[in-house]
From TrEMBL:
Pfam family, one: ADH_zinc_N
Domain Enoyl reductase (ER) residue range list: 22-332
Organism: Pararobbsia silviterrae
Protein name, as recorded: NAD(P)H-quinone oxidoreductase
Matching PANTHER family: OS02G0805600 PROTEIN, QUINONE OXIDOREDUCTASE PIG3-RELATED
Keyword annotations: NADP, Oxidoreductase
Length: 339
């Protein structure tokens, strides 16, 4: 451990635990020992943690006995300890990271290969809004859907944490991006982020509106975070040999779509889960992001911060997210370190 007291680590810290399956009230602050670094880990003194739909779903299911009872898949902060095998991250580095749970805490562990520097032009706290959305965007569009140059995209939830960053990244890379949203105001935000057009799914069939906007054509890839709601419309909105990628299991309900039309279009329906990906694949995504996306952040790509709350108000953050009127990312700020 370094002599510099700036990086001194206490024996215990505050964590937000999922104490039972249930509503936001099951999130409780608990004092626990600070986690210890494995050989390939870094310990981050957390500045902010991102709040994601995955955290809500985990809370509804109850404590995670496989990964961590502490929710949170992304953090930003300063590295205060490194494992014995870590050579590419140093104590004192300002970073953001994808974490395998444990983000709602004063200190969090991350695999060094899933740690990225805070981009120039972005604050330390705002950087917590990047990892989950950008890892999700990179993996699903370029690994799962194999998005090719010049192909077009439809994103359900254009102002979500994933959608708002994906629109900017894909637009910057030359793709025509369309979005669906739950209000005219959110559609307008999606357009300001770079979407060619956005469609209010509450006021009409988005597939019809999309094809009208594209002269009768559909799109090549659809990213669907809405579960099983849009099976038929998704197929209708797809080009021949297009791909539909699902990010949400929709509570486990069965997916229904017109099979004959899917066959006629030779389309693919697939999906992914980010958390179970092998570490070697997450490391490759991190390298791709650093090379391809990090130079765009702060200029052509910037996260939307919907709201900030202190770590102790994690339950209120979940209430806000579940209410469904969020544009961008909710962050939980840790007060102990950087103000």
């Amino acid at each position: 451990m370094p002599l510099d007291p700036t990086f001194a680590v206490p024996a215990c810290h505050a964590e937000i635990h999922i104490t039972a399956a249930g509503g936001p009230d099951v999130l409780q602050r608990i004092e626990r020992p600070v986690p210890r670094c494995g050989a390939s880990d870094v310990l981050i003194r957390v500045a902010s943690a991102g709040v994601n739909r995955h955290d809500v779903n985990q809370r509804r299911r109850g404590p995670d006995t496989v990964h961590s009872p502490v929710p949170g898949l992304e953090v930003s902060g300063v590295v205060v300890r490194v494992g014995d095998d870590v050579t590419d991250v140093r104590i004192g580095d300002a970073v953001c990271a994808l974490v395998n749970g444990g983000g709602y805490a004063e200190y969090a562990l991350a695999d060094h290969a899933q740690v990225l520097p805070v981009p120039a032009g972005l604050s330390l706290r705002d950087a917590a809004a990047l990892p989950e959305a950008l890892f999700t965007t990179a993996h699903n569009f370029f690994n799962v859907a194999r998005l090719a140059p010049g192909e077009s995209v439809l994103i359900h939830g254009g102002t979500s944490g994933v959608g708002s960053l994906a629109i900017q990244v894909l637009t910057a890379r030359g793709h025509a991006v369309y979005a669906t949203c739950g209000s005219d105001e959110k559609c307008a935000i999606s357009r300001t982020l770079g979407a060619v057009d956005a469609f209010n799914y509450r006021t009409g069939a988005f597939a019809d509106a999309l094809k009208a906007a594209r002269g009768g054509e559909g799109v090549d890839v659809i990213l669907d975070m809405a579960g099983v709601v849009y099976g038929r419309q998704n197929v209708d909105a797809l080009n021949r040999r297009g791909r539909i990628v699902h990010l949400s299991p929709g509570g486990g309900a069965d997916l229904s779509f017109p099979l004959r039309e899917l066959m006629r279009k030779e389309a693919v329906v697939t999906g992914s889960l980010l958390r179970p990906l092998p570490d070697i694949e997450k490391a490759a995504i991190a390298q791709w992001l650093r090379a391809q996306v990090w130079p765009l952040i702060g200029t052509r790509v910037k996260p939307i911060i919907a709201q900030r709350l202190p770590l102790a108000q994690a339950s209120q953050a979940h209430e806000i997210l579940e209410a469904g009127d969020v544009a961008g990312k909710i962050l939980l700020d840790v007060a102990h370190a950087f103000d």
